[in-house]
Amino acid sequence: MTRRADRLFQIAELLRGRRLTTAQQLADWLSVSPRTVYRDVRDLQLSGVPIEGEAGIGYRLNRNASLPPLTFTAEELAALATGARMLETWGGARFASGARSALAKIASAMPADKRTALDRLPVFAPSFHIDETFCAKVDAIHQAIDTRHVVSFGYRDRLGAHSQRRVWPLGLVYWGGRWTIGAWCELREDFRTFDIARMGDIVVHEQFPDMEGRRIADYMRIAEAPMR
User: Fold this and answer.
1) Where in the numbering of this chain does the HTH deoR-type domain appear (predicted)?
2) What is the helix (H) or strand (E) element at residue 34, kind and residue range?
3) By C-alpha distance, which of 76, 39, 72 is closest to 84?
4) What is the pLDDT of residues 78-94, one digit of tens each?
């Protein structure tokens, strides 16, 4: 589901059974502008969702209204299942648990024929060759990113040189078979990319601040620049 599609669904759910809710309240809850809320509500109304009210006063969804069920094409189901199976193998325990749970929820809401197609999808990601230590590192970094904690580790680069690093982990980046972290490196005082397979034991330290110019969006702009 795209971010906007998810937001539209959230708006409808937030309005269900409530008294009038203002666009400003919705904007605060969803971390968007009131203008975005106005546009989303209008689009929902045009698509047939029975939202009552108007801009400047407030909105509500009829208590008896039902949202249409989420449906997927065969190609969409295959894409979701493939991604989930890859995360189960490559993503560490946290991603694996989330992937299994999400796929089970999707399957339970599907008609029998589509559940069968999902079960028979001939795409697999065997886990027998995955190092448990590697998965534990992915989990530790994932947690540190979520809680914005500095981590330190020994690192071996592609030439075999060793160094000790303290970094602000900003995001996990998957490069087709290779997990890396995008981070702000205190040693280099710049963004760096670290291959998780080349990292030693991870030690978690204090929290780092949410600083303008040192966010994941800033890292991605630099990381993607040569590709443009």
Assistant:
1) 4-59
2) helix 34-46
3) 76
4) 888 888 888 887 788 88
- End-to-end, the C-alpha distance of the chain in Å comes to 26
Structural domain total, the chain: 3
Q: What is the pLDDT of residue 49?
A: 83
Tell which phi-psi region holds residue 192, choosing left (phi > 0), alpha (psi between -120 and 50) or beta.
beta
Same domain, 139 and 221: yes
CA distances from 57 to 143, 186, 201 (A): 42, 50, 56
What is the CATH number for 196? Answer: 2.30.30
Q: Compute the distance between CA of residue 12 and CA of residue 7 in angstroms, rounded to an integer.
A: 9
In this prediction, residue 227 has a pLDDT band, given cuts at 50, 70 and 90, of: very low
Helix (H, G, I), strand (E, B) or coil at 128: coil
Determine which helix (DSSP H) or strand (DSSP E) holds 81, and give its type and residue range: helix 74-90
108 plus 169 within the same structural domain = no
Strand order through the sheet with 162-174: 190-195, 179-185, 162-174, 149-156, 203-207
Taking alpha carbons only, the member of 160, 157, 208 closest to residue 184 is 208
Q: Which residue range(s) make up the domain with 150? A: 132-227
Rounded to two decimals, the pTM is 0.61
Question: Is 158 domain-assigned?
Answer: yes
Q: Is residue 124 part of a domain?
A: no
Q: How many secondary structure helices (H) and strands (E) does the chain include? A: 8, 7
Q: Are residues 110 and 29 part of one domain?
A: no
**pLDDT on residue 70:** 58
b/e sequence 45-60, b meaning 16+ C-beta within 10 Å:
eeeebebebeeeebbb
Both tokens of 178, joined, read 């290779």
